[in-house]
Design a protein that fits this description.
By secondary structure, the chain is α+β, with helices and mostly antiparallel strands. It has helices at about 20-25, 75-95, 165-190; strands at about 1-5, 30-40, 60-70, 100-105, 110, 115-120, 120-125, 130-140. It has a single domain, classed as BirA Bifunctional Protein, domain 2, CATH 3.30.930. The longest helix has 24 residues, at about 165-190. The chain starts with a strand and ends in a 5-residue tail after the last helix. The relative contact order is 0.19. The model has no long low-confidence stretch (mean pLDDT about 90). Pfam families: DUF366 (PF04017).
Length: about 190
């Protein structure tokens, strides 16, 4: 599995969740994670989650991850959601290591802002015929987030996490996820089945 970090700020508009995006855009012919920072404004035609129809999903600056797996054929939505939760838990543990204690509800992370719980992340998992796709993003700032959602942001939490740390956090999260998937595959190869 490969990790590509984009150097240029890119807007997540929902089109990146389409199958083969990393291959068509960057020539990656393998399961991959692409990470970058940038705004998010999902075009209504690119919404994946039926619960999100009619609501705004946006933010001015976020840390994005697009994960695509080709190792299960046909693609398995159940497995994809399990992998999404693995990634969310990796990020949750990593943020805890940086002093940002979060809580998790499903695939969402929240940060306690005193007496208010702010939504720190967004995520979706989906499948095509040939691949499993996950988008996960953390708010870096609360600017541009929907007015009707109480949000939290990595760089505005009053902690020691600074903009210069974002790239390191992304790199560690991707490395840990790639290692976790590799470890699972290794465990499968050494396990006696009945």
């Amino acid at each position: 599995m490969k990790h590509l970090k984009l150097e240029n700020e890119t807007c997540y508009d929902g089109s990146q969740i389409e199958p083969y995006w990393a291959f068509k855009t960057f020539g990656i012919k393998d399961s991959s994670i692409v990470s970058w920072t940038g705004p998010m404004e999902i075009h209504p035609n690119n919404l994946i989650d039926f619960e999100d129809i009619g609501i705004e999903i946006k933010g001015d600056n976020m840390l994005h991850f697009i994960i695509e797996h080709f190792d299960s054929q046909p693609a398995d939505l159940n497995l994809c959601y399990h992998r999404q939760r693995i990634f969310v838990l990796i990020v949750k543990d990593l943020l805890n290591d940086w002093g940002m204690v979060t809580s998790r509800e499903g695939d969402d992370l929240f940060f306690d802002k005193g007496n208010i719980k702010g939504k720190l992340s967004v995520s979706i998992a989906t499948c095509s015929v040939s691949s499993m796709k996950i988008h996960f993003a953390l708010n870096l700032t609360e600017n541009g987030t929907p007015a009707d959602v109480e949000t939290a942001a990595l760089l505005e939490a009053g902690l020691s996490i600074e903009a210069s740390h974002v790239e390191e956090i992304a790199e560690i999260a991707c490395d840990k996820y790639i290692q976790e998937i590799s470890d699972i595959k290794s465990d499968i190869t050494k396990t006696k089945v009945f």
